């Protein structure tokens, strides 16, 4: 083959490539027009005084953050594909080893038909006031919502979610959700060898949530209910969960409270969780928040007459929030915790016989977090 022929063919390929650039650019432009990207970072330094709590140790840790990146691609005016990945670090928590560095939190198809929305795939689970934004620090007065209620569970559901919004008149709005599928749960348990991680899967999960929003005082009332098959290494069976929610905003004050109960014959469980939270905007760029949360749990024994409900944990927290430019917030928070739920083994049972049970003394711990949250 002559050098001229090679040059000609090379020039032809180059010309065709240059001609293809505008076409490719136009195609890429149309794709990017339909793509939205959103992200958030919630990074903190924490330190505890006596016992580790939620991965915050006595020596302190900066290995504490959540980063989320969400992409939304419009297939049509009514259809979207949504995916969200996140990177989460939990300091020295025993749960840290059970969570991958990068996790696909959501991946679903969404279709809207008027006031009806249907999602299929790995969806946000409509459960309580803050479940969908539990990792977005810029919309929360603390680093996270109270774990006594959210738990390390139920942040997503593999299946289908349908929602409907309706104006009832007089400024009252009704939101209704229905869902079916499966989810995941992680928890710390005290074993004979120390603190362990219990992984569980819920399947055949079905339920719903309803909210009524009123025009007075920004009042919002909600109720959630679900039943699901609970599968773990120590047993399986069906459980039920309900959550009652209330929220109100008056001028510079916002108050919210939720109560949840999880019951089930297998594995035996009866847990009751409650929190109350209030935020006051002192000036335009500074707010303070206070929070009280608690968990009461039933202990089960071979002799059912010894079964009892104990105040497993009580926690109080305060937070100062500074609003910075570019949708960024700086928070300094302090928490007091009392009970038997920490990162180290603290069994509530000191001793037992066939006819009596002696409880261990409650433990106390304090910890603080300073965090920076930003989102786009």
TrEMBL record:
Keyword set includes Signal: yes
Stored SUPFAM superfamilies: Porins
Alphabetical keyword list: Signal
Taxonomic lineage from the root: Bacteria, Pseudomonadati, Gemmatimonadota, Gemmatimonadia, Gemmatimonadales
The protein's name: Porin
Highest taxon of source: Bacteria
Signal peptide region: 1-28
Native source organism of the sequence: Roseisolibacter agri
């Amino acid at each position: 083959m002559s050098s001229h022929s090679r040059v000609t063919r090379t020039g032809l390929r180059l010309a065709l490539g240059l001609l293809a650039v505008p076409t490719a650019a136009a195609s890429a432009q149309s794709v990017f027009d339909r793509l939205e990207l959103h992200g958030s970072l919630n990074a903190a330094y924490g330190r505890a005084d006596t016992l580790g709590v939620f991965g915050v140790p006595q020596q302190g840790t900066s290995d504490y953050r959540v980063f989320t990146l969400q992409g939304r691609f419009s297939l049509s005016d009514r259809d979207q594909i949504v995916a969200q990945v996140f990177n989460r670090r939990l300091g020295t928590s025993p749960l840290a080893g059970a969570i991958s560095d990068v996790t696909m939190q959501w991946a679903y198809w969404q279709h809207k038909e008027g006031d009806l929305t249907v999602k299929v795939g790995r969806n946000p689970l409509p459960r309580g006031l803050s479940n969908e934004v539990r990792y977005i620090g810029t919309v929360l007065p603390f680093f996270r919502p109270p774990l006594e209620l959210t738990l390390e569970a139920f942040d997503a559901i593999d299946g289908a979610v349908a929602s409907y919004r309706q104006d009832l008149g007089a400024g009252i709005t009704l939101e209704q959700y229905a869902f079916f599928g499966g989810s995941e749960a992680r928890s710390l348990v005290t074993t004979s060898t120390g603190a362990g991680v219990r992984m569980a899967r819920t399947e055949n999960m079905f339920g719903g949530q309803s909210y009524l929003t009123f025009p007075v005082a920004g009042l919002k009332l909600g109720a959630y209910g679900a039943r699901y098959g609970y599968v773990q290494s120590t047993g399986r069976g069906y459980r039920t969960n309900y959550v009652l929610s209330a929220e109100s905003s008056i001028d510079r004050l916002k108050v919210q409270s939720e109560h949840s109960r999880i019951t089930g014959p297998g594995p035996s469980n009866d847990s009751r969780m409650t929190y109350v939270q209030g935020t006051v905007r002192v000036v335009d760029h500074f707010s303070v928040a206070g929070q009280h949360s608690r968990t009461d749990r039933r202990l089960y024994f071979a002799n059912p007459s010894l079964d009892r409900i104990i105040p497993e944990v009580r926690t109080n927290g305060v937070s100062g929030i500074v609003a910075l430019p570019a949708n960024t917030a700086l928070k300094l928070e302090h928490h007091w915790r009392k009970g038997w739920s920490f990162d180290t083994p603290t069994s509530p049972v000191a001793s037992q016989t066939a006819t009596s049970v002696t409880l261990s003394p409650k433990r106390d711990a304090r910890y603080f977090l300073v965090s920076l949250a930003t989102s786009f």
